[in-house]
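Person: I keep going back and forth on a fold encoding question. Show me how you would write down a chain together with its backbone fold. Please set it down just below, with no commentary around it:
Helper:
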Amino acid sequence: MQSAAIDAAYYAAMEIPSALAHSVAEETPRNAQDKNGAKAGNGGPLVLPTSPSKGTNGKLGMTGSNPLADEHLLGDWAGIRTGLQDMGISLSAQYLLHGVYNLNGGTDSGFRQAGQASLGATFDLDRMIGVKKAVIQLLILNRNGDNLSTDKRLFLLQPAQGIYGRGEVWRLTQFWYRQTIGKVEYKIGRVSLSEDFATAPCIFENGTFCGTAPGNILGYYWYNSPVSEWGARVRLYDGRKGYFQLGLYEVNPSNLRDDKGFNLSFKGCTGVMIPIEKAWAVRLGGDPRRAGLYKIGAWYDTSRATDLVRDVDGGMAALSGRPLEKKRGRYGAYAAFRQQIVAPDAEGAGGFNMFLNAVQGDRRTAPLLNKFAVGAFYSGLIPGRPTDEIGLAIGRTRSNGRLARMHAAWNEMARDNVPIRRSEYAAELDYIIYPLPGLTLRPNLQLVVHPAGRSDRKSIVIAGFSALTSF
């Protein structure tokens, strides 16, 4: 098994859960250098970055690299792990912690922490029973802890703790079958939409930069992990140039309930999500160590959805008192770019990469209309610590302008003072350390400007800390 499969644990524990790194490895940039320099084949899955700024291999991206990040805290389990892998069974166990302290804002300052435990297994059916290029993957997740934004009445549009949410329960996040035949890969089963489309790592702690962008602003029908749904997707690879994929997923609000963590029923399904995505893989100057992945996508949900503002007669429901209009269809588009700009040296220092994520929902139904984030990572800033990384990201989450106009009209009519919400801006500075095998530490500082999209509120500064342990 590639070291990238282990290193993917950090992102696996976030919004791209995976017991093996396949889906993460093809989506997430990293700045380090693989020692074996293997060459990419002409077909099959792309192998792309699995960490912010550590190394590349000779495939299509930056996998593998930092041995401290690639290993496990408990090592090889006295040979058990290797023995199971030789049989085709790969096990994973991780715990991720997000701790935050608001230095100002809210009712008062205070510390809150949220955690996520994950247990996974991947079964290589080629090794086990001779089914070529086929795997079955199982993953269950448990989230726990408290939300700083609500407890301290910060009411942020994006949470300071990216992994908080979806109840303090165990959930079946993955139970699917995937096989590659030539240049075609298909996958079917119990899946999380975010592991296949608009996939992005949760390298930072603030939700503005953490995980799959559509699910961050449209989580009432685009479900990021740990929630899963029945779904299938087909992906066509174009050698080393990229891929095109199409998916079909159920939209079932019942899956969000705390008592439906292992729900396998279609009961409560409201429609079908149909996403498409095109990805291009590039190598700057033809250098495999400077790989990048550029993705654009769109989706359509066939569910009936309520208009935010418009009533059944075409007026503003808040003013008329008439029922809101309800029509079929919700949609949107996104872009996710990752690029290694400068390759690191043999020790891992000097690597520099950038990312950009953007998403746009539909104006009729989306309270949060769009989100944009850009960031960069650099390795080896401090002399003598070549594998440490520093990351900086900035982003904006925008409320739907139709809501702002409705609130303004209501205030004028009722002589009320409902807050007008527009855009919330966030920035985060992280320092990433790998002190022990299987342990990643990420202290950070977050700045939120116009909290909740309100220009009348003071900026909030939050000190954060993230830690991932891979056992």
In short: The longest helix spans residues 401-414. Residues 316 and 445 are 41 Å apart (CA to CA).
